[in-house]
Specification:
The complex is a heterodimer of chains A (107) and B (114). Chain A is mainly beta and 107 residues long. Chain A is built from no helices and ten strands. Chain B contains no helices and eleven strands. In chain B, the strands form two sheets. In chain B, strands 2, 4, 5, 6, 9, 10 and 11 form a seven-stranded mixed beta sheet that branches. A four-stranded antiparallel beta sheet of chain B has the order 1-3-8-7, with no helix packed on it.
């Protein structure tokens, strides 16, 4: 099975900061990686698919990059609505659709 | 949208059946999934089923105890959960698979406790 390692687990930042979250996989997954945002008491929301494709309605301050085994989610200028927990997920052919451990972005 | 139901309190060793009703899209065109989240923990993928039930996959943690199924005529996804354990306590979400899980239900809580 492909293992997914996400870092950091928590991140303290301020409004306006540039924020970077990293996801690494134990085997290459080409670009089959998604990023989600989850707020307390809510279902996750898909932000980015195929490593870098922004979902409709997602602000352009969110960006994804990477391929192979290393991927990055970047928030170019953190906004108050962005304080949440972020998860990566690999979905390469079939290996279990594993999620990263999550990164909580707080003030 | 997706709407889950069927959660509740069940004793260890018991069974529960979750249902997810889909609307607003062509349900039979998409693979579907169950994902769970224990209180205060991260997301855990549980099971997947192909659009025509051509494939079914399970996480090792539920294999042999949970059964995923779908009824395309009724736009419905199910998760039959048997031999439930305390570590199955979680919020259970159904999610549509479209290069990432793009639509999620609101979730239903399953609590396994004596």
């Amino acid at each position: 099975d492909i293992q997914v390692t996400q870092s950091p687990s928590t991140l303290s930042a301020s409004v306006g900061d540039r924020v970077t979250i990293t996801c690494r996989t134990s085997q290459t997954i080409t670009s089959w990686l998604a990023w989600y945002q989850q707020k307390p008491g809510k279902a996750p929301k898909l932000l980015i698919s195929k490593a870098s494709t922004l979902e409709s309605g997602v602000p352009s301050r969110f960006g994804g990059s990477g391929s192979g085994t290393e991927f990055t989610l970047t928030i170019s200028s953190l906004q108050p609505d962005d304080f949440a927990t972020y998860y990566c997920q690999q979905y390469h052919s079939f290996s279990p659709w594993a999620f990263g451990q999550g990164t909580k972005v707080d003030i | 949208q997706l709407v889950e139901s069927g959660g509740g309190l069940v004793k260890p060793g018991g069974s529960l059946r979750l249902t997810c009703e889909a609307s607003g899209f062509s349900f039979s065109d998409f693979s579907m999934n169950w994902v769970r989240q224990a209180p205060g923990k991260g997301l855990e993928w549980v099971a997947s089923i192909g659009s025509r039930s051509t494939y079914i996959y399970y996480a090792d943690s539920v294999k042999g105890r949970f059964t995923i199924s779908r009824d395309n005529a009724k736009n419905s996804l199910s998760l039959q959960m048997n031999s439930l354990r305390g570590d199955d306590t979680a919020f259970y979400y159904c999610a549509r698979d479209k290069s990432g899980f793009d639509i999620w239900g609101q979730g239903t809580m399953v609590t396994v406790s004596s």
